[in-house]
Design brief:
heterodimer; A: mainly alpha; Four Helix Bundle (Hemerythrin (Met), subunit A); 8 helices; B: Helix Hairpins; 76% helix
Chain lengths: 184, 104
């Protein structure tokens, strides 16, 4: 009973936050709604008994991703004329909802054919110890691959985000054909 | 508490994310919707982990959280660069990107 009411509240925040995220016009309100949804999702992980994932979700999704998003939104400081004009936004959302509904039903139908009832968990399920043992026993290679991926993402983000050299190179490519013609 | 509830919730989140990607034109909302779709998959993985009393799926969810963080960094750098080049957050104004000229 208690579990069900907690689930209901978290689901309300999760769905409400996501719906608010796609319907707000102001970008910063969307980001805050996403924050609410991610916190509720962390609560869901806790409800499912994964205490470490709960912490990881709060640290990474809320502490890093949303904060980084808010910082970018505040840094670029887009004015009203820089935002897209979407006069028929809600009509578009309604139309897309009609289109997506069959896909959602398909996913749901595929999922409910599976085994449905939660059994009592084994001793130590979801604890940090169980997580670490599984991670470093059978998932070492993906773990190392993730390290390389994060390094590549860091280098890529710096390379994409740089200002001057990018535009210099762009100019060089723009004038490349002309230079070749001049040389010949 | 039945697993069906979590399946419904995960499906709903994925659909909301898909709706956001398709129907909105603000770059930030598109990015946050993609994040939401990834997170819904995460919720599904954890539900399966709990259903089968097996930590493997939870470990995949943990690795997926790292992938989400990497994707966020790249996407935000890309948004900064796009905004700098056109002073716009409208995804329609970058329609010429697909012509393969590499010119924004």
């Amino acid at each position: 009973m208690l579990e069900n009411s907690i689930f209901g509240m978290l689901a309300l925040f999760l769905v409400g936050g996501s719906v608010a995220m796609i319907s707000f016009k102001e970008t910063i309100y969307s980001a805050f709604s996403f924050l609410v949804a991610m916190l509720a999702l962390a609560g869901m992980f806790a409800l499912l008994g994964n205490s470490f994932l709960f912490l990881a979700q709060i640290m990474v999704s809320v502490g890093a991703v949303v904060v980084l998003t808010l910082m970018v939104i505040l840094t670029i400081n887009a004015q009203d004329e820089n935002h897209p004009q979407e006069p028929y936004k809600f009509r578009w959302i309604l139309f897309t909802t009609v289109l997506v509904t069959p896909i959602a039903v398909l996913i749901y139908k595929a999922l409910v054919t599976l085994h449905l009832h939660f059994e009592k968990t084994k001793e130590g399920y979801g604890s940090l110890k169980a997580m670490g043992e599984t991670l470093f026993a059978s998932w070492v290679l993906p773990f190392e691959a993730i390290s390389v991926l994060l390094l590549a993402a860091m280098v890529g983000a710096i390379a994409i985000g740089r200002k001057e050299s990018y535009f210099k190179k762009q100019e060089y490519f723009d004038n490349y054909d002309k230079k070749k013609e001049d040389a010949s | 508490m039945v697993a069906e509830q979590f399946f419904i919730l995960s499906t709903l989140l994925f659909s909301i994310g898909l709706i956001g990607v398709v129907s909105r034109r603000n770059l930030f909302v598109v990015y946050l919707s993609i994040e939401l779709m990834l997170s819904s998959v995460n919720l599904l993985l954890v539900t399966f982990s709990r259903l089968h009393n097996n930590m493997d799926a939870a470990v995949i969810a943990l690795l997926l959280i790292a992938v989400i963080a990497a994707e966020a960094a790249l996407f935000l750098a890309m948004i900064m660069q796009l905004y700098r080049s056109k002073r716009s957050l409208d995804s329609d104004s970058f329609a010429n990107l697909f012509q393969g000229k590499g010119k924004i």
